[in-house]
Design a protein that fits this description.
By secondary structure, the protein is mainly alpha-helical. The chain has one domain. The protein is 74% helix and 1% strand. A two-stranded antiparallel ribbon has the order 1-2. Helix 4 runs parallel beside helix 16, helix 6 runs parallel beside helix 9 and helix 9 runs antiparallel to helix 15. The longest helix is centred in the C-terminal third of the chain and has 54 residues. The chain is globular and about 60 Å long. The termini are far apart. 40% of the residues are buried.
Length: 415
């Protein structure tokens, strides 16, 4: 019965360590989201669990269900569906733009419109787009591999035009964080897919200039950048620098071993959005340097495994699957780096969730779908490796038989 249940939940053989690290990070997120929403410790008994969790357990269950579902989908099907799925993602972004244009102020959250209301729930298309652009870029790189290497205009102009549309819709929301993550991820997939470095370097320079222009053209973004240099300065601590200043104080209070779960003080009105954009600072305060290091090592393992699984798929001449796995590794690495960098003051303040840990249903769904794809690709790699020892001797015998027949025919022809 246990075997039947395991086969139902995990229809393909999976990497046990990969699953264990993923579940471990989900568990850390479950605990830290609850802790980040706790009031003063003396009021714990009066708090309602589900009110404090903000539906995070349900987000995890939905994400795990999506991961198990994706395990049943072959990567070849994803390759065929990559373009329609990308069109669906653009349509969802257009829907958000229409809501912002005609919906009114009731849809505005923190000065932006980023979600589609679905009853009592909401769907944030920018999170799903992080997965869909990886599929589309991988499929594009496979289809246009030769053009990308030798005909740069015809090879890159189509996807470049599509990415302009996507980034334009994201910036209209506005969501600069998702724009940066998606742009860097697509560039990484195309580079891994064969794009020439002579294109990458000018492209990176142009993107840097574009984002710099966006920052200098927006007063509140420019103020964030200036406050990044001296966040706790009296002129910034009460304005744009209060987020980073609160995060740095949280890390300083945590020290080596942390203050203990639930006992952090930064989340008590001093640190904004402690359950989403600044949950890494909560981890630093309550679990200390040890907890922060453990979380980063866990993400490092997942990212490394994604890259390795992608390399194995490429060695088996399954380029699309390999690019998807490596693209997901790039995405997780970029987003984790930005989130941790913002929380620790290494990067200017920008709101991004920490994958698998931060509160957010759409973000959790997107990451679980992506990891389900990686596990499926890994299972296909293992199946192909098991089949190779059987297939290769047959091919060698067939080649020797064909060669022997050719020699006999040649001798008969000479005689």
């Amino acid at each position: 019965m246990l075997d039947r249940l395991r086969q139902t939940l995990m229809p393909a053989p999976v990497d046990g360590r990969f699953v264990a690290v993923t579940v471990g990070l989900l568990a850390v997120g479950l605990v830290m989201v609850y802790s980040a929403n706790l009031p003063l410790p003396s009021a714990n008994a009066q708090a309602v669990f589900w009110m404090q969790m903000r539906g995070h357990p349900m987000h995890i269950l939905i994400g795990l269900a999506a991961l198990i579902l994706v395990l049943r989908i072959p990567s070849d099907w994803l390759r065929k569906a990559s373009a329609p799925l990308f069109v669906l993602g653009v349509a969802l972004l257009l829907t958000v733009a229409m809501i912002k244009l005609f919906g009114g102020e009731q849809f505005v959250r923190d000065g932006a419109v980023r979600a589609i209301p679905i009853g009592s729930l909401t769907l944030q298309p920018s999170e799903l787009m992080k997965v869909l652009v990886i599929l589309f870029a991988a499929g594009y790189a496979v289809r246009r591999h030769d053009r990308m290497r030798f005909d740069l205009v015809r090879g890159l102009a189509p996807i470049g035009a599509l990415m302009v549309i996507v980034t334009g819709l994201l910036l209209y929301q506005p969501d600069l964080g998702a724009t940066i993550v998606i742009t860097l991820t697509v560039a990484g997939v195309l580079l891994l897919g064969g794009m020439s470095l002579r294109v990458v370097i000018p492209l990176v320079i142009l993107l840097g200039l574009f984002f710099a222009l966006m920052i200098f053209a927006t007063p509140w973004r420019l103020e964030r950048l200036l406050s990044y240099l001296t966040p706790c300065d009296p002129g910034h601590a009460q304005k744009a620098g209060y987020q980073l200043c609160g995060a740095l104080i949280a890390f300083g209070h945590g020290g080596l071993f942390g203050s203990g779960l639930g006992t952090g003080i930064a989340k008590l009105g001093y640190l904004p959005l402690p359950h989403t954009d600044f949950i890494f600072a909560v981890i630093g305060e309550e679990l200390g340097f040890i907890g922060v290091t453990a979380v980063l090592l866990a993400f490092g393992y997942l990212i490394r495994r994604c890259i390795e699984i992608g390399r194995v798929a490429m060695s088996q001449e399954r380029m699309f699957a390999g690019l998807v796995a490596q693209g997901i590794g790039v995405w997780l690495g970029v987003q984790t780096l930005i989130h941790a960098g913002v929380n620790t003051g290494l990067l200017p303040t920008k709101g991004l969730t920490l994958p698998l840990i931060s509160h957010g249903g759409s973000a959790m769904l997107a990451v679980c779908i992506a990891l389900g794809m990686v596990l499926r690709i890994d299972a296909e790699n293992r199946a192909a490796a098991r089949a190779r020892p059987v297939v290769e001797p047959i091919l060698r015998r067939h080649a020797r038989s064909t060669l022997g027949t050719g020699h006999r025919m040649a001798r008969q022809g000479r005689s």
